[in-house]
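Extended Data, record Sugar transporter SWEET1
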Amino acid sequence: MDLLQLLSWACIVFTVGMFSTGLTDLKKMRESKSADNIQFLPFLTTCLNNLGWLYYGILKQDQTIVLVNIIGALLQILYIIMYFNYTKQKRLVMSETLAAGMVLTCGWFYFTTFLPEGDTRLSQLGFTCSVVTVSMYLSPLTDLVQIVRSGNVQCLSFPLTVATFFTSTSWVLYGLQLNDNYIVVPNTPGIFTSLIRFYLFWRFASVNQSSPSYKSMQI
């Protein structure tokens, strides 16, 4: 097994593991018959991101990217369906889902109609997916600032932090092997934000050790 194939398997295992952390929220919803205290937008935005990268993988003919994002999209769709089933805000969830569907449709129409096939379409799509992924990794920084101020890490998920670190690292190494900056650049922030979270756990975990276990939340 060469290095690229090894990294490919690492990307698949770690990324599916990261997506599977949502099963904790799914279990909570089933047990409580409620979606209270569980965020919906991370499921929706992750699904859109998966579908974008799936299209990128198809254009690039990269089976690793295709497989990972098929699994990811299916899991996110499952989470969305279960959330809709248990939430009291069905109208809001439906409107947000329809808006996301419109964005996805418009994006697909733009890339397939206005951009020529080949490198131009692949580059534009890679850039768009990269911007979305970087935004998702950086969006929780304001929450991390609040954690520093409060000294409370209960809203952080340690398993998700570990999964994000190994997932981002494996994709960066995989992208370097392929010389694909659209894979390397958007996953680099995931490494740094994970390191920040590890520091917060080390710094504040002893303060909260008498508190309940970490609450699963996409931060």
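Summary. The CA atoms of residues 47 and 76 lie 5 Å apart.
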